[in-house]
Amino acid sequence: MALFQYFSRNDLEQVHATVLRLMNEVGVRFPHDPALQVLKKAGCRVDADRVRFPANIVEEAVRKAPAKFTIYGRNPEQKVEIGGDNVVFLPCSGAPIVEDIKQGRRDATLEDLIRFIKLNHTSKVLPIIGGPMVEPNGVPTARRTAERIFAAMKYSDKPFMGGVLGKEEARRTIDMAAMVLGSEKALAERPPCISLLGTAPPLAWDCNTLAAMMEYTSLGVPVLCNTMAIAGMTAPVTLESSLVIHTAEVLSGVTLAQSVREGTPVVFSGASSCANLRDGLMAAGAPELGIFTVAATQMGRFYNLPVRAGGASTDSKMVDVQAGYESMSNLLMSTLDGVNFVLLSAGVLDSYMVSSFEKFIVDEEMIGMCLRIRRGEQITAERLAYDVIVEGAEKCDFLGHPHTLENFRTELHDPALSFRSSYFKWVEKGRPDILETAHRKWNQRLSDFQAPDLPPELEKDLRKYVDNITCG
After folding, report:
1. Which CATH number fits domain 63-375: 3.20.20.480, 3.40.50.300, 3.90.190.20, 3.30.160.20?
2. Is residue 75 within 8 Å of 452, Cβ to Cβ?
3. ∠ CA(30), CA(34), CA(40), 5° rounding?
4. Is 442:107 a contact under the CB 8 Å cutoff?
């Protein structure tokens, strides 16, 4: 499938040259001494906490990073390739509020997080268990990541997202994964997780994030080097200049990762958009987010790195028409331009502040449509089916033709949620509303849920590890 793009190769070269100039002349702040020491040893110039990157150091680091890699669930069949032509969709992340159409908005709980993990596990279009799909209010902050990872391992055997808020969270992720896999060596050989490590724009990293990155990359565990440049607020208002900051921040993280351990899998990651200048907030449903998705994806492919961008993001406060057109716009941009890793693809509302159970189901439907589009078509003699055209036209019948009966299940997308029958059948079925249908479907999936096997002794050991975490 031909990919949508904004920029020519010459355009990308100009962006790249500007990025290298910015990284060399201005640099990026790394307020973490171990990271500074690693980068200094790699050949970067360090002045206090500011690191300036010679062009050859950055370009060499990019060459060391793999173009694609695999992460593995504890079930050997649940493995996911990231990079190349593959696209992977993941659910909502980080919302403190949860919503459904019966109970409305409320503070999210651990039970809500477990519900989303179960939906994620049973999803046919979301092959990785997301990070904090909701923040479990009521659980002490020091224990939240461990509780989430315990739940991800108990209720799913898919790969999962690791903890990122400091060295301790990364270490707990590694410890618990190593318990399941048998050793840290096994974890390094078949990593079961990937973690989203974000910058602190403009042109800076956070100390805790850097500590987590160094913990993961010391073992070669995959990470996403992520940024969120906001045009007009944390970056210049022109999207091209924001792209320069976006790229410089990500490449600074890639350089650190490769300096810690050469060959560590990294993803060129970002969720940049623009500011809503009327109130100073980020616009999650703006067309500029889609433009950034395409632009960042082109830059990631320019560097031959896997790319994270896009999602089903929206600024709408409820699952309505606005949520539909903004989310599908962003999902389609991710689909058509070759993104590999699409976080925030299911359940997102209100500029990432809310995770909605009904929207999770609606977004799954849209992801299924996008996957069908991304599959593409091939012009071959078999698929052109000239003889079938002749036979069907002669009889004025393709519906009953053997070719249709043999191929329709694989050729045509069959929706799980959309109602495609006639108006009269819709009336006959009681005029079903899509949100009511989505509500019924997520409840039914939870009711039918069966957890994958987890040895009782292993579950007991994991539970003990979580319970022993001191909450100061």
Report:
1. 3.20.20.480
2. yes
3. 70
4. no
